[in-house]
Amino acid sequence: MLKSWYLPDRFFQVYGAFPVLFLISFFFPAGYIPVIIAFGMVLLLTLMDGWLLTVGSRGLQAEREVSRIFSLGETHQIGLRLKNGSGLQLWTIVIDELPVQLQVRDQELLVALPPGQELHTTYPIRPLTRGVYRFGHLNVYLFSRIGLLRRRLQLGKPCEVAVYPSIRQMKRFEFMGLHQLSASGGLKKLRRIGHSYEFDQIRNYLSGDDFRSINWKASGRRGGLMVNQYADERSQQIYCILDKSRLMQQPFEGMSLLDYAVNASLVLSNIALLKHDKAGLLTFSNNLGSVIKADNVPNQLQKIMQVLYKEAIREEDADFELLYRATQKLLSGRSLIILFTNFESKHGLERALPLLRSINRTHLLLVILFQNTAITRFVEKPAGQLQDVYHQAIARKYLTDKQEMVQMLQQYGIQTLLTEPDKLSLDTINKYLELKSRGLI
Fold it and tell me: What is the residue-wise DSSP string for 271-333?
């Protein structure tokens, strides 16, 4: 019982003044009686404060309102519902026992509760790692206007929340399944280069249609220009392949490159299924990880999300020879392979390049590399000292090597995308729609 009571700073400030006052009254006896009276009044206020907190705590209720699933990298609002069932004005400091993954130790909310009132408040969190997040109790520190004592109440129930790859991001990008690309300035129609081989229908000619698609026989019968409309080919195999090696552990705004790739893989798989393609998944490092055969069955996206939820970084280097053997053995038929990886030097790419070229002969390979935005920002800063000039020269060499890696891959006919981590999902979808519209898959 006593463990729930706490002495705040005001208690020590008030009671700490009395030894000084008693010492002064020793030299000035006339002040002894007023000090005794003041001390008795403070004791009485302390007892009254304890009684108010005891009565107020009986009618206090607190609950946490939280969803069952969080999205990785997204901001979520945690709701708190506090109800003062007593007839007293109460003040509370609410400290939620947050999951250890958040690494937050200074979060507290000061809430005033009028008598008989219920109050709703929220605070934000942003999960940066996948897994199970465990919330503990709500620690409510109760105090009155007197403020000489505080009482701690442990309310609410502990709960667990699973942090999955970003479902919110997946929903936001669903509209991109309708033959559109997104640019920083808004939406624009995708300019189709050629067409696929699946005939859809004959329709009236519209300004901007390809003249080569005009159906002259139908135009002669109808007395006006008619064009053949082609639909994107369906049931094509789309595989997202995630490199889980140590190079994908590089952080960006609190999340690793692997986490960005996980979010982008879920978004792209959803878009592929909306386009009636078959979505699959493969992960690797020095060992082969999870494999989901490309399909478009109703629960395919759920299977992919469950696997992505559990993937973790490994400390070893990526084995691209293992990846080549896996693609030859496990991937039947020509597929679009979207490889999320990271090369920090041209030497590392040169070792993997023969194997990537071999994969590209059988499938359409899209290699996605990450731009180090921290180095880019560092290069753009003005150099103040000679040492800064030297460091910026090294940073520019790194950026130049990254561009040369892209050119090296493109030189051998390998589709390549160099993007910033926070633009990964958007740029990957755009590239997928572009390749599909050009009939390269």
Answer: HHHHTTPEEEEEEESSSEEEEEEEE--TTHHHHHHHHHHH----SSPP-HHHHHHHHHHH--S
CA dihedral for 81, 86, 88, 93, sign (positive or negative): negative
3-state secondary structure of 403: helix
Cα torsion angle, 27, 28, 30, 32, sign: negative
Q: Kindly tell me the burial class for residue 276, based on how many C-beta atoms sit within 10 Å of its own C-beta (0-12, 13-18, 19 or more).
A: middle
By the 10 Å C-beta count (0-12 exposed, 13-18 middle, 19+ buried), 299 is classed as exposed
CB 285 within 8 A of CB 314: yes
Q: What is the pTM of this model?
A: 0.80
The C-alpha angle 426, 430, 436, rounded to 5 degrees, equals 145
DSSP bridge pairs for 155? 138
All domains in the chain, ordered by first residue: 1-164 (2.60.40.10), 167-177+234-437 (3.40.50.410), 198-231 (no CATH)
Q: What is the pLDDT of residue 94?
A: 92
- pLDDT band at residue 111, thresholds of 50, 70 and 90? confident
DSSP secondary structure, 157-211, as one string: --EEEEEES-HHHHHHTGGGGTTEEEETTEEEE----S--SEEEEEEE--TT--G
Give residue 136's identity as a one-letter amino acid code: G
> At what angle are helices 9-27 and 32-58 packed, to 10 degrees?
160
Cα dist. 350→61, 127, 321, 363, 371 in Å?
64, 36, 13, 20, 19
**Residue appearing with tokens 């403070």:** 42
What are the structure tokens assigned to 437, written together? Answer: 């519209």
How far is it, in rounded angstroms, from Cα 429 to Cα 118?
46
Q: Does residue 285 surpass a pLDDT of 90?
A: yes
Structure tokens at 228: 């053949």
Q: 């624009």: which residue's tokens?
A: 188
Confidence at residue 125, expressed as pLDDT on a 0 to 100 scale: 93
DSSP designation for 376: H
| AA letter at 97 | E
Pairing of β 186-189 and β 180-183: antiparallel
Residue 435 · residue 360 · CB < 8 Å: no
